[in-house]
Specification:
Strand order of the largest sheet: 1-2-8-7-6-5-3-4
Structural class: alpha/beta
Distance between the termini: 67 Å
Bound molecules: pyridoxal-5'-phosphate
Number of strands: 13
Radius of gyration: 22 Å
CATH superfamily of the largest domain: Type I PLP-dependent aspartate aminotransferase-like (Major domain)
Shape: globular
Length: 412
């Protein structure tokens, strides 16, 4: 299956970063790459709400099905709105190809099942998103894929965990919820020395703040549900990388297995991408202010935000990111009771585990996102009872700060 350019006739379900609009800056590409060609000359990208496509003749149908002739066949694997999203995200991440998926987890699933076989081994960071942890340890293992877990920032542990059958290193940076930072270039060296692939989940930074492929990663996975949408409306995901692995192997898996992105959701993500760089800069600026406020507050024991100079990932983050993002975590003295008091005292922040929204969200990881993890594992991961995670939205930052101050003990 060939990849398509933004102006190519007959779009497919995957995107290529190449096209007439490359060469422009990030914000321009986020708005201009991936305009489906269509006869009504609509200015906004149309939503192609169709499951299938008509063919001019039996011969054309045969040529389309065989892949001899590029073009639309069936929306599980070819849809112009999904292709437009994929082309745009490929351009923004600097990848040759991109496929859209039904959710972020579908992107992780397609990346692993599309590329790995029984007997293969993955090295992954311990602090991965909960559903990724569960997919790897409870499901992939049933198909003969083994996993070793290491600390995200411990480069020696990554190197030592590699075995002859290691095919993939998988990491999220910055991590959730403690904003740990992995050195992508060093992980890429370890992966490539072992003839393995480095996969980075770029959900927290998005390509507006970090482009892992430029640092040597082979593949980027996304939960589009978070910042790519940016307003908490739709589930979706994506994988970006080279034409062979993404454009053929992972795309082929999605074509057969079916975790496809819906055209409506693709359209929402297209609109989300158009404001991505503005939003990520605004999330980062507000998060920095909130982190600085918390760092100076006597009721706060510790703040986890790579934008603070004392954070141990600060220097690496400065090198590989163009901003520190919108996720801030902090611990209050007094354990769960004190953490819940801060959460319950808020009137503005939404108590929900979702992130990447215009609305600021607040959550208690130890009893929600990490609630099913054993106490020992939580401690190893640094998820204390007093920990609170924030996803800083786009409200006025002073209102966010006032809201957090309500439940913190008064100074003195
Ligand atoms: C939410 C999330 C996912 C999963 O995405 P869904 O769209 O919810 O399936 C994967 N990785 C990270 C880092 C996430 O935050």
């Amino acid at each position: 299956m060939s990849t398509t350019t933004p102006d190519a006739e007959g779009e497919s379900g995957q995107g290529s970063g190449e096209g007439e609009v490359t060469g422009y800056g990030f914000a321009t590409q986020a708005i201009r790459v991936g305009q489906p060609s269509e006869s009504e000359q609509a200015h906004a990208e149309p939503i192609y709400a169709t499951s299938s496509y008509r063919f001019a003749s039996a011969a054309e149908a045969a040529a389309r099905f065989s892949g001899e002739q590029p073009g639309n066949v069936y929306s599980r694997f070819t849809n112009p709105t999904v292709a437009a999203f994929s082309q745009r995200l490929a351009a923004l991440e600097g990848g040759e190809a991109c496929v859209g998926t039904a959710s972020g987890m579908a992107a992780v699933l397609a990346t692993t099942l599309g590329l790995l076989s029984a007997g293969d081994h993955i090295v992954a960071s311990r602090g991965l998103f909960g559903a990724t942890l569960s997919l790897f340890s409870n499901h992939l293992t049933r198909f003969g894929i083994s996993v070793s877990w290491v600390d995200l920032t411990d480069t020696t542990a990554w190197r030592e965990a590699v075995r002859p059958n290691t095919r993939m290193l998988f990491a999220e940076t910055p991590s959730n919820p403690l904003c740990e930072i992995a050195d992508i270039a060093r992980l890429a060296q370890i992966a490539h020395a072992a003839d393995a692939l480095l996969v980075i989940d770029n959900c927290f930074c998005t390509p507006a703040l970090q482009r892992p492929l430029e640092h040597g990663a082979d593949l980027v996975v996304h939960s589009a549900t978070k910042y790519l949408d940016g307003q908490g409306r739709c589930l979706g995901g994506a994988v970006v990388g080279d034409r062979q692995r993404v454009g053929e192997q992972i795309y082929g898996f999605i074509r057969s297995a079916g975790p496809a992105m819906s055209p409506f959701n693709a359209w929402v993500f297209l609109k989300g991408l158009e404001t991505l760089s503005l939003r990520m800069a605004a999330h980062s600026e507000r998060a920095q202010r909130v982190a600085e406020f918390l760092a100076e507050h006597p009721g706060v024991a510790r703040v986890y935000y790579a934008g603070l100079p004392h954070h141990r990932g600060h220097e690496v983050a400065r090198r590989q990111q163009s901003g520190f993002g919108g996720i801030v975590s902090f611990t209050v003295a007094g354990g769960r009771e004190a953490a819940w008091r801060v959460i319950d005292a808020t009137r503005l922040c939404s108590i929900t585990a979702n992130l990447g929204d215009t609305k600021t969200t607040i959550t208690h990881p130890a009893t929600t996102t990490h609630g099913t993890v054993s106490e020992a594992q939580r401690q190893a991961a640094g998820i204390e009872e007093g920990l609170v995670r924030l996803s800083i939205g786009l409200e006025d930052v002073d209102d966010i700060i006032d809201d957090l101050a309500r439940g913190l003990p008064a100074a003195g």
